[in-house]
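Section 3.1 - Work completed
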Amino acid sequence: MIKSFHPPLRTLMGPGPSDVHPRVLSAMARPTIGHLDPAFIGMMDEIKHLLQYALRTENPLTLPVSAPGSAGMEACFVNLVEPGDKIIVCQNGVFGGRMKENVERFGGVALMVEDAWGTAVSVDKVRHIMQQHDDIKALAFVHAETSTGVCSDARALCRLARDYGCLSIVDAVTSLGGIELDVDQWGIDALYSGTQKCLSAPPGISPVTFSERALIKISQRQTRVPSWFLDKNLVMGYWGGGAKRAYHHTAPVNALYGLHEALVMLQDEGLEQAWQRHALHHRALRDGLEAMGLQMAVAADVRLPQLNSVTIPEGIDDPRLRNALLERYGLEIGAGLGVLAGKVWRIGLMGSSCTQRHVMLCLDALENTLLELDGDIHGGRAAAAARAVYAETEH
C-alpha cells in the first residue's frame, strides 16, 4: 500500500529550486479560499504591486502566470510572435535554444546570434544583424543563463532594440531578486521569470511583465493568439485590477500565498540589499573554491553571483561526487548541461540558499569529498579564505 510521501531533508545549492524559507512554507499551509473571494482578490493586487517593485516597473500588465518559468517564456512569445515575424534570438547556453523553439513553433523566423557557452551575448553581433534587416520585430535573449552562470548586458541589448525599433523579450528566470534588474529604466518590453530561484518560493509560478509597446503589438496582431490559456487579452480580465474579476482559470491559491510571502520578504530586506547579499556570499564561495585549487569556469566580468560554474578537476567522477554530497551531507549541487556536461558543476547561491551557513557547508562537504576521491586540491584552506571575506564586511 502506498503511504504518505515524506521527502528527505536537503540543502539545495543547485541551479534551482533553492531552499524555500519556512515563512513561505507556512504561508502555503494557510486555509484555501476561493480564487474569486474578495480577500484573495485583494492579495492578488498586492502580488502585482510587489512584482512591480521587484522588477522595477510600473507596467500594468505585470502578473504571475499559473505555471512554471517555461510557461512564462511561452506567454511572451505566443503573444508577441506572429507567422513570418523575424525575431533575433541570442543563444549562449541551453535556454536561448528554447527561445528559438518558441519562435519557430509560432511561425516566426529565428535569426540566430550564437556565442560560445560560458561567454556573454555579443552586443556587436546583435547590432550587425540588426543593420542587415529593417524588419526585425523583436530581440530575445537570456539575461542570466542558468546553464552556464553567465550574465549578459541586458541594458545595452534593450537599448539596441529600441534604437532599431523592435521589441525586447528577456529571460530573467535566474536574475530576478539576485542581481540588478530594472525593467523600466532598461526599456525591457517583455520579461518572464520564475519563483524557485532567487525568490525562494516553490516552482510552479512565472512572473511576467509587458510594456506599453508590447501591448500595442498584441492589440494590433493580424492573427489570433494561438494559446487560449496564455492569451494576455483574456487573462487580464482576471488579473487586470478592480474588485470585479472575470473568471479565467482556477488560480493556484496556496502557491500564490507562498509567492506573496516571498515577495514580502524581498520587500522587507530591500531589493538592493538582496543583490548585495548575493554578491557577498558569492565572493566568499569563490575565494574558498579558489583557495582549494578549483577554478571558476566563467570570466569575472560576466559571472553570475547566484549561479557559480566551477570546472571539475581532472580525474574526478562527476556523478559519484554529486551522489556522495547528496547521500552524506544532504547537499545538492548541479551538473553541467549540454556541451558543459561532465565539465562543470553549477553551484547555486539563490534566495534562502544564499547564506554564510550554505557557503561554509558547501566548501566543507566539497573539500572532504574531493579528498576522499583523491582530487588534486589544497585541503584546509577553503574555510579560512571564505571567513576572511566575511571578516572584511564586519569592519
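Second construct:
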Amino acid sequence: MKTFPNNFLWGGAIAANQVEGSFLLDGKGLSTSDMLPNGILSPHQTREERTDGIKDLAIDFYNRYPEDIELFNEMGFNCLRLSIAWTRIFPNGDELEPNEEGLAYYDRIFDELAKHDMQPFVTLSHYEMPYALVENYGGWASRELITFFERYARTVFERYKHKVKLWLTFNEINMSLHAPFTGVGLQEEASEQAIYQAIHHQLVANAKAVKLCHEIIPDAKIGNMLLGAMNYPYTCNPDDVIAAMHENNKWLFFGDVQTRGKYPGYMLRYFRENGIEIEMQPGDVEELASASVDFISFSYYASGCASADPKQKEVGNIVDSVPNPYLEKSQWGWLIDPKGLRILLNFLHDRYQKPLFIVENGLGARDEVNENGEIIDDYRIAYLNDHLVQAREAVLDGVELMGFTSWGPIDLVANSTAEMSKRYGYIYVDRHDDGTGSLERKRKKSFYWYQDVIGSNGASLKA
C-alpha cells in the first residue's frame, strides 16, 4: 500500500495568536500570548506597561484569510486545524455574555472554509487564555476557571454546531509542566504543587468540554492534544530504561487521564513521594471518569533520550533531554527522527486503542528568497517526506490514523520568541523579525510538493 486511507484528512495547522493579528480589534481582550510580544515572559506587566509586539499584526490572517484559505485550497487541503481566540469570544474570560463580533468573525472563517469543502478542525485553547483571568483570578490556580471555560466551550459549540465537527480542547496540554505561564497562567517560578493543582482544574475543564461537545453536537468528535515527547533510553542499562519510563510518564499522564478517566498509579506515587496533594472537590473523580476523548492527537517534531546520569542532559526546545548520537539536528538544534514518528504512533495506538491524528509536524528553517524570487526549501521537503513515509508505515502496522495537519502551512510568528525567521510554511510571508515587510504571500517549492502528496493521497512520497 502506497497511499493513505481514502477518508484521510490532509491539511495544515495554525493558531489564532500566531497568525491573526488585530490583537484588540472588534472587542478582543488581551490574552496571555499578547503579554509575550517579543518572547520575553512578562506576567508581572500591567496592561499599561505592555509594549507593541510583532504578534499585534502577525501575518494579518484576520483580514487576509480569504486569500490564505484559497492558497490552502490550491494545495488540496480538505482540513484546516485552527484555533479560536478565547479572548475574541469572552474578552476578559468571566463575562456572562459573549462578544458577538468575535463570534461573527469565526462564522466568516468557517463559511469560507465550507466554500472550499475544507473541514475546520478547531482547538479551543491554543497556548493562550484571557490575561484578565490571570490578573483577577490567578489563572488556572483558581477553580473558577473551570466555570469560565465551560461557558466558553458551550458558547462556541452551540454557535458552530452545524459548521464544526472536529474539536480539540487544550493544545499540547502537557507543556504546562515546562511553560506554566503559557499553559496555565502561572508564573514560571510556581511550585510543582501549584502547577499540578492548576493542571487538575484544567483536566476537569477538559472533561466538561468533552461531555458538552457530545451533548450539543452528537455527530462531532472531540480529542485531546499532546506534545509527543517520546524518550528513548540512552543505553540498555536498566537504570536508563527506567529513566526513560519516568520521562515518558510525565506527558503520558495527561493522555491517561483524558482517555482512561483517572489518575494513573505512577502519578499517584509521584505525588506521594514529592509531597504533592491535589485538592479535589466532590464530583471531580466522576467527572474525569465520564468523559473519555474520541481520539488522541499530538504534535511530533523530535525525539529525545533519557539517562540516569544527570550530567548527560542538555537544554533542548523548552524540554531538556539527552542528545541522541545517531540523529542529525535541525538549524534550531532539534533532533530529526522520522522513524520516531512510527514508533510513537504504534506506542500510542497500542496504549489507548483509539484513532490517532498527527496535528503538528514540520521543519522550522531560515528560508531565503533567491535571485529568481524562488524559495527552494528541499530540506523541508526531505523532512516532511521522511516523516510521512513513516506515518504510512504505521498505518501498515495497523495504526488507525485519521489525518495529518503539518504545522504552519503558511509562515507565522513564533509564540515563545516572536520570530518570523523560523519559518515552517509552504507559503512564504514577507515579514521579518523587526516587523518590516510587505506581507506578500509567495509559494515555496514545498507548496507544489505537498500539492502532489495530497493529490496522490501519499503515493508520490519517496521511501
